[in-house]
């Protein structure tokens, strides 16, 4: 589907965990430049791929002034150090995610290796609102996949940038978090139920991209999990 005015999905295909993976970082335009949601895995060419996307939008990496991490998993944050070598961007993550990004704690799902740690400049929490050219962007706490997972909500366009709180795949256009990759499934499903109370018409998933489904489908996911 077409991107929303001011917000652009940047789907890229990378190598991660020994397999080929298609992911959907995104940027939203602001008066200060671009806000980037997640980056991609380390040593995967993700930053070069993002740069190619941005040039097609008549932007460059230097136009990114803020990186918002939905959470600390390696396929989202691993390439952040590479990006910061090429930009002066500020980094923001939920306060519960900060120690995993900075290296004070090992990533929850790590088998020993980890991506290069980076400093986090802004610790986010629920209630933070950032003005963008796509309308106000609200930070939502959606823990469960990781302790401080966040999603981003654009109420004026009823759009949810879900991170990994929801996924899209061939079996079901919009699905709940995958148990195999979720630290606390009960809490993750509580987060899904909370998302179902919002006015959401479309969802952008990091895994699966844009989906023309929202609150109704999200409530179905939450209800099925209770049965």
Automatic annotation (TrEMBL):
<protein>
    <submittedName>
        <fullName>Beta-lactamase</fullName>
    </submittedName>
</protein>
<feature type="domain" description="Metallo-beta-lactamase">
    <location>
        <begin position="22"/>
        <end position="207"/>
    </location>
</feature>
<dbReference type="Pfam" id="PF00753">
    <property type="entry name" value="Lactamase_B"/>
</dbReference>
<dbReference type="InterPro" id="IPR001279">
    <property type="entry name" value="Metallo-B-lactamas"/>
</dbReference>
<dbReference type="InterPro" id="IPR050855">
    <property type="entry name" value="NDM-1-like"/>
</dbReference>
<dbReference type="InterPro" id="IPR036866">
    <property type="entry name" value="RibonucZ/Hydroxyglut_hydro"/>
</dbReference>
């Amino acid at each position: 589907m077409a991107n929303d005015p001011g917000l652009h999905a940047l789907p890229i295909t990378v190598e991660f965990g020994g397999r080929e993976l298609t992911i959907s970082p995104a940027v939203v335009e602001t008066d200060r430049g671009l806000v980037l949601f997640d980056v991609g895995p380390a040593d995967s060419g993700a930053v070069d791929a993002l740069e190619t996307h941005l040039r097609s939008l008549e932007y460059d990496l230097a136009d990114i002034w803020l990186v918002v991490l939905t959470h600390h998993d390696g396929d989202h944050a691993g390439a952040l150090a590479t990006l910061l070598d090429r930009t002066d961007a500020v980094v923001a993550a939920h306060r519960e995610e900060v120690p995993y990004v900075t290296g004070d704690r090992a990533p929850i799902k790590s088998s020993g290796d980890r991506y290069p740690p980076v400093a986090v400049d802004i610790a986010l929490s629920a209630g933070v609102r950032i003005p963008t050219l796509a309308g106000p962007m609200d930070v939502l706490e959606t823990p469960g996949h990781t302790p401080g997972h966040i999603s981003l909500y654009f109420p004026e366009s009823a759009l949810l940038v879900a991170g990994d709180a929801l996924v899209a795949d061939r079996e079901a256009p919009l699905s709940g978090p995958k148990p195999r990759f979720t630290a606390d499934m009960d809490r993750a499903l509580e987060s899904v139920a909370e998302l179902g109370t919002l006015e959401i018409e479309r969802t952008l998933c990091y895994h699966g991209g844009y989906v023309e489904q929202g609150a109704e489908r999200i409530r179905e996911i939450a209800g099925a999990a209770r049965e």
